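Morning!

This is the sequence you dropped in the shared folder:
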Amino acid sequence: MISSDIIRGYNDTIILYLLLDAPSYGYEISKRIRSISGEKYIIKETTLYSAFTRMEKNGFIESFYAEKEEGGKRRTYYRITDAGRAYYSEKCEEWNLTKEVIEKFIAKETANGNA
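The structure's back. Tokens below.
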């Protein structure tokens, strides 16, 4: 399991990635994060919705309502904006630089489980 402290700065990147191709809603995004990470990262509901609120305020995503299938309760969906796509690209570049720097401080023996 990944520590939420370590991944916190990349929640926005993860969520924006999942919105690149199509709008989605909270529960579905949460399930996809869990699935894609192989159950190694399970985002808390409060963390997810705080990220939605922050990113919508910053103009990176926008929300809209859609009726649930079979006449159920309406859901709030989120879609990425052009500003969100630009922010996602910036965060990907930042990640590559971060990874490059941090890898310089990871002992090869420890990284391979030979410590």
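Headline: The longest strand covers residues 61-67.

More detail when I'm at my desk.
O.
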